[in-house]
Amino acid sequence: MSVIPVDFRTLQHSDLDDPYAEWYEPKPALSAINLGASLYVPATRLDLEIIASGQKLPELRSVIFCTEDAIHERDLEVALSRLAVLLPELQPVPLLRFIRPRNPAILRRLLRMEGIERIHGFALPKFDPHTLGDWLRVWDDRHGHYLLPILETAEVFDRRKMELLRDRLENSGLGEQVLGLRIGGNDLLSLLGIRRARGATIYDTPLRGVIADLVCIFHPAGYRLSAPVFERLDTPEVLAREVEADLQHGLIGKTAIHPAQIPVIEGLYRVCRDDYEMASAVLAPDAAAVFKRCETFCEPTTHRRWAAGVLERAQVFGVQGAA
Asked: Is 2.60.120.260 the CATH classification of the domain at 8-269?
């Protein structure tokens, strides 16, 4: 399928009839790091309102209301009805709120709902070079929504196709809307007919090399990648090992399947004292070209991007041992 490049940055919205303009204010700039551990919530739940208001799970930084795999096809209309009731009632809160549409047709319906400007964006499933054009055809950027494309199709295993997706994203003009790319680990394992064993992390499966390839393809282009879900609730120590490996691969943000996983994930996002001190020294205006800190070689020219990421993480999640 060929994709016609459309640069949404050149679209003018001043002539659009926006009935919610009085409520809507430009959303503050976000970083993927602000998402923390994102919790998927089926949009069929009866307690959507108290979750979306931040009352039920006050520790939650971001939530994704799902109309895709988390619900049955037969319940789709119920989910959309619940969202249609919820959206106009949403009030500004610190919680970052996203919706996962089932497909581009459902995204079109969501974008036409009253109050849709009150969410931060959309997690787009099955995102690849073939479906990009379908998403583009229904996309409406008038409310400044962010996008969280999910990489979870067979194309992810083809490095050339992921490079093509990166290039087409840039040509489409959507690059600035992409807050981060999410790796659909379970869908990718399903394509291989594999389910990780108890005690195994995602890096003990064939996806280790796939994740490394995605990092090498998308990170140099400025895109952030979030980590796959960890599906077991009774082995928090294995989840902790996986989060440590996520961070070593440069992944930030991880899908949670249960609120109990959030403190484990975000606890490991806290920056260790040595890394915080090294990063601060690397970014110091008077830093030497080469120096030693915490018994570690530091070179601001090559370590600046790492250091900036460490301090950004520290600002959001804190420093281990800090008061």
From this structure: no
